[in-house]
Design brief:
CATH topology of the largest domain: Spore Coat Polysaccharide Biosynthesis Protein SpsA, Chain A
Bound molecules: uridine-5'-diphosphate, magnesium ion
Structural class: alpha/beta
Largest sheet: 7 strands, mixed
Strand order of the largest sheet: 3-2-1-4-6-5-7
Length: 368
């Protein structure tokens, strides 16, 4: 409530500025655009409907990033499906970036044909298969749009969902994740996937039904902030949530795979969970390793000490011989491991301190 009020006042204050904007010098306009790229979406939407499209001139308003591996049959139909939706959505201000993740079929020559007939369609081609996360990371770095969408190339995701997702972004969300509510995949994918989503939802603290949908929409700041590598593409909503971005989901249409085959086998689940551990550790504790290691280590030292003090008292009272108490070894082990964990935490702190220059903090807004 308070927030909205603040927004309204802010809008009033900005009104004369916006009239002025049209007459300002190119240098000033560039500066304004830069300041603009700091998140103030609602302000604009309230002021002139969809001014982002006008203001950004030659810059694309939307970027669609599409990672693909051996999807030759799907690409042409995908192109036509995209062309039915994108021009109307963005007044023609859009770009589509295909990331060919080392395809060994004719995918890239199909993409080249598409690019020849429509320059809004661009492509980046990997020399070898680097994985979907790598493809997304490279696509995110290349994307110039104020809003960035991702989708799979296999025609399972439907471009008709893009306008709804854009609307949610314009309402103020930073990441809108698709939810394959009615899913068309074989059972050996859907059942483990339910389990995966349940655990990820619990561990990450953000309630979503579907973390790993290919169809997602982002505000530009999100894709420029998140670091995607390994198999992290499964956790993008969790990563964004931990960075403080506003994340939500919308149910989307999902189609059965028509051509080709799924590129992820059973290994997806095992690798996926190891990555969740990394994600949790690097996002939550990377700045204070001692908080994690120190806490666990201290608890272990305390338990070990308590056990050994108890045994010492018994021994002093002549009630027991320590050689007959295996518990003594357990107590000692707890103390040793605990001390080691604390030292690890301290070493971690040293590493963090030395790498502080490279740390970035996510700033949502600036008022100067
Ligand atoms: N993909 C990719 N690199 C890979 C594996 C997959 O770029 O190493 C692409 C694939 O071409 C598709 C998307 O990622 O566009 C999703 O893959 P897939 O449909 O095989 O996954 P599923 O739908 O079975 O989860
Ligand atoms: Mg698929």
């Amino acid at each position: 409530m308070e927030h909205q009020h603040h927004r309204r006042r802010h809008r009033h204050r900005n009104k004369p500025d916006s009239r002025h904007e049209r007459h300002s010098s190119p240098a000033l306009q560039k500066l304004e655009q830069e300041i603009d790229s700091i998140d103030k979406p609602n302000l604009h939407a309230e002021r002139h409907g969809h001014p982002q499209r006008k203001q950004h001139g030659s810059k694309p308003f939307m970027s669609i990033v599409i990672p693909l591996l051996n999807e030759e049959e799907s690409l042409k139909p995908l192109y036509h499906a995209l062309e039915e939706v994108l021009p109307g959505m963005s007044d023609g201000h859009y770009e589509v970036i295909f990331i060919d993740d080392g395809s060994t079929d004719t995918s890239f020559s199909v993409i080249r044909d598409i690019h020849e007939s429509n320059r809004k369609y661009k492509a980046i081609r990997f020399r070898r298969n680097c994985g979907k996360s790598a493809a997304l990371a490279v696509g995110f770095a290349a994307a110039q749009g104020r809003f960035v969408f991702t989708m799979d190339a296999d025609l399972q995701d439907d471009p008709k969902e893009l306008p709804v997702m854009l609307e949610m972004l314009e309402q103020g969300y930073d990441l809108v994740s698709g939810w394959k509510k009615k899913r068309h995949d074989p059972w050996h994918k859907t059942i483990p996937s339910r389990f995966f989503n349940f655990v990820t939802s619990r561990m990450s603290g953000i309630k979503l039904h579907d973390f790993n949908c290919g169809l997602k929409a982002y505000r530009k700041e999100v894709v420029k902030t998140l670091q995607v590598y390994g198999e992290m593409h499964r956790y993008l909503p969790a990563l964004a949530h931990w960075e403080g971005f506003r994340v939500t989901e919308v149910p989307v249409l999902h189609h059965p795979r028509k051509y080709g085959y799924s590129k992820f086998g059973f290994s997806r689940f095992f690798k996926g969970f190891l990555d969740l551990l990394t994600v949790m550790f690097t996002t939550r504790y990377v700045k204070r390793p001692l908080h994690l290691f120190g806490t666990v280590g201290s608890i272990m030292v305390l338990i070990g000490l308590a056990i050994n003090i108890y045994l010492t008292v018994e021994w002093a009272m002549g009630l027991t011989f320590l050689s007959q108490r295996p518990l003594a070894l357990f107590g000692i082990a707890m103390i040793i491991v605990g001390v080691q964990l604390i030292s690890m935490g301290l070493i971690g702190e040293l590493v963090v301190k030395n790498s502080l220059e490279t740390t970035t903090y996510g700033i949502r807004e600036k008022l100067d």
